[in-house]
Amino acid sequence: MSAYEELMAFDRQTQALRQIAGRLGWDQETVMPRAAAPQRAEESEAMEQVLHARRTDPRLGDWLAAIDEAALDQVGRANLRHIRRSFTRATRVPARLAGELARVTSEAQGQWAEARAADDFAGFAPVLARIVALKREEAAALAAGGDLYDALLDDYEPGATGAELQAMFDALRPRLVDLRARILGAAHQPAALTGSFDEQAQMKLTRRLAKAFGYDMAHGRIDKAVHPFSSGSGLDVRITTRTNPEDPFGAVYSTIHETGHACYEQHIDPAYLLTPLGAGVSMGVHESQSRIYENQLGRSRAFTGWLFGEFKGAFGDLALADAEAFYAAANRVHPGFIRTESDEVQYNLHVLLRFDLERQMIAGTLDVADLEEAWNSRFEADFGVKVERASQGCLQDVHWSVGLFGYFPTYSLGNVYAGCLHKALRADMPDLDTHLAAGDAAKPTEWLADRLQRHGGLYEPKEVITLACGEAPGEGPLLDYLEAKFSEIYRL
């Protein structure tokens, strides 16, 4: 075997083990017995130590040095790019630290869920403080003298920097704040969807919706979790959702959101299975898929017109007069605490809050003990309402408890990418609304699969978005879309 063949054979086993580790996480969040958490923490630590040993195996360096990159094709060069980057980063993190992070964050998932249910931030704060300390230690090892936050961000959006994202967010904020003020001050305020909605009927509807967007249930499944997520790649891609008898939109749109993630993974070129190219290239690109499915497609007038009929079939008569009222209700802008339940206009403001706070924690300028007060003060300033309990505030998201620092800004970056993709999709598919009005969201999925999803990790994040859209990404298309859509709904 050549050095390249040996490298790829070794990496394939590493990719397979990584999928198994992911399955442990899926199981923990869905069906694992609650009292099994301590054992699962040890299992996760053991698996991470095995993976870390493989990612830092000295043979990787030997193989990388022996390969003539100029003799490889585009796929081979892309594989080397990912493996070299992973090897460089992994060798900077001590095995002891990698294992401890896996154990502590595995234990913290259950502790966070209990603290969230009890609205007890003080009880969880020492756990979070330990995680922040470990992540700062990891960041210092990765940064090699550079910016700590950028080192963590690179795990989720390779090549991006905190300063670059800050500039983008600074450009987003003024128009979003202005639009929100005009909406909330508008004379016309659409009615909300009210009533009680059977949770079993919600789950049945979620499966129909996932299939409508092209999710292959032969290679996936839908379960419930405290915090909806997507897991896996290749031939086994699973999603979760959550239900609330008073808010069926939560189940509907979290399912469509996670279906966007899942379809991305399911539509990657099968030739890339269990290779570095066989997964989404970044979390920003990943989020672009979930957000365009959820919002530009799933909350469009055309699709909600079809969904209105599905709701009546599932739940009976609704307290809304017609499909137009249903469309307005699905897009209603209203004050709220929960990021995942936020409307399109305010969603990015939720993300910007988290981005600023986590940068401060990693920089060491915000102590975890002061996080709840900092969150509540910032939230009241940004949204004009007071946080009443921790589950509405800094305990609402699972991300920090599992060590995902640097992840939050990719949500807003994904929204920006989605705005660009939607502009290109509409230009290429003038009959898009005809398909959506018939409940056929698979057609735009096919466009996204061809333009973006099939490439997996072949290109860099900005490169694949530019390739799909025909122009470099920017915040303009997203802001233009939001202003046009909500100005019409609210008669501004």
UniProtKB/TrEMBL annotation:
EC number per UniProt: 3.4.17.19
Q: Which GO terms describe its molecular function?
A: carboxypeptidase activity
The enzyme's first-digit EC class, named in words, is: hydrolase
Enumerate the Pfam families for this protein.
Answer: Peptidase_M32
CDD domains assigned to the protein according to its UniProt record, in alphabetical order: M32_Taq
Q: Which InterPro entries match?
A: Peptidase_M32_Taq
Q: Which domain of life does the UniProt lineage start with?
A: Bacteria
What is this enzyme's catalytic activity, as reactions? Release of a C-terminal amino acid with broad specificity, except for -Pro
Keywords linked to the UniProt accession = Carboxypeptidase, Hydrolase, Metal-binding, Metalloprotease, Protease
Respond yes or no to whether keyword Membrane is given for this record.
Answer: no
In which family does this protein belong, per the annotation?
Belongs to the peptidase M32 family.
The function of this protein is: Broad specificity carboxypetidase that releases amino acids sequentially from the C-terminus, including neutral, aromatic, polar and basic residues.
- Know the name of this protein? Metal-dependent carboxypeptidase
